[in-house]
Specification:
Layout: H1 6-16, H2 18-28, H3 52-63, H4 71-81, E1 82-85, E2 89-100, E3 103-115, E4 118-127, H5 134-147
């Protein structure tokens, strides 16, 4: 997860098959559910689209396992998303960068902060002709979370 090994996730999609992948995105209601861009590229600046609000809502459903997945699998995903922890809070998330013609045009940082009394879910998405990366989205999101005292 930390290295965004796209070829690994592409191989999983190939093993599952197009129909299974399409059915899964429909089952969980992921954005526009459109995987028609092809098994290798539907998610990379292609046909599959999701808004930051939809992304945040889906992450909360995953966190609370509203999809009914194996709790062991949910816990494994949660563990893989942990980025940093303090004495009373844990930051979990994932960045993503969409490229077109070698330019970073779409940056995401999606995640949550766990504190003793609450879980704060967030999604930051920035788009530009260049320099819109996941790390830039992360910087913005962490700044906003810091301004609200959620993460420092």
């Amino acid at each position: 997860m930390g290295n965004s090994v796209n070829w690994y996730f592409q191989s999983i999609d190939h093993q599952a098959g197009y129909s299974e992948v399409a059915g899964f995105y429909h089952e969980i209601g992921y954005g526009n559910e459109d995987v028609s861009g092809g098994i290798d590229s539907y998610w990379g600046e292609s046909t599959l689209k999701i808004s930051p609000i939809e992304q945040t809502e889906l992450l909360a459903k995953l966190y609370y396992n509203e999809f009914g997945f194996s709790q062991e699998n949910i816990d494994t995903v949660k563990d893989s998303l942990v980025l940093s922890s303090g004495t009373d809070r844990i930051l979990s998330g994932k960045t993503g960068t969409g490229m077109v013609n070698g330019q970073n045009v779409n940056g995401w940082f999606v995640g949550y902060v766990e504190v003793s009394e609450n879980v704060y879910f967030f999604a930051a998405n920035i788009q530009n002709e260049d320099n819109a990366s996941g790390s830039a989205a992360s910087d913005i999101a962490l700044s906003v979370l810091g301004s609200f005292g959620i993460w420092q």
